[in-house]
Specification:
With 91 residues, this protein is mainly α. It has two helices and no strands. Helix 1 runs antiparallel to helix 2. The protein is elongated, with a radius of gyration of 22 Å. The chain starts with 34 loop residues before the first helix and ends in a 19-residue tail after the last helix.
Amino acid sequence: MNRSCFAPHRSCPEPPVDLPAQSPSLEPAPVQDCGVCAHAAAWRRAYRTGKGTADGYTNHSAALDCSLEIRNHPHEPRVPGLPLHTPAVRP
C-alpha cells in the first residue's frame, strides 16, 4: 500500500479530551401539570438518593426507568425527543 493514504506520523500525542462525568441536559424534564411525569420524577429522585425507598438503598436502574417513562410518556401536545421532520440528505 502507498503510505500517502495514512495520516502523517506525529512525534507527540495530542492533549487529552476532558469529558464531563454526567450531562445534566440529557435528563428528561417532567412536563408541567402532568401527574404521571410528576410521579415518575418523585420516584426517580427517591431511587437516586435512596430516601423514600423501602430498603433505603439507591437503585440507578429504576431511576433510569423513571427517566424513560418521563421521556416516552405521551402528552398533548406531544413533546418530541427528536425533530419531527426527517433530516435533509445531502448528495
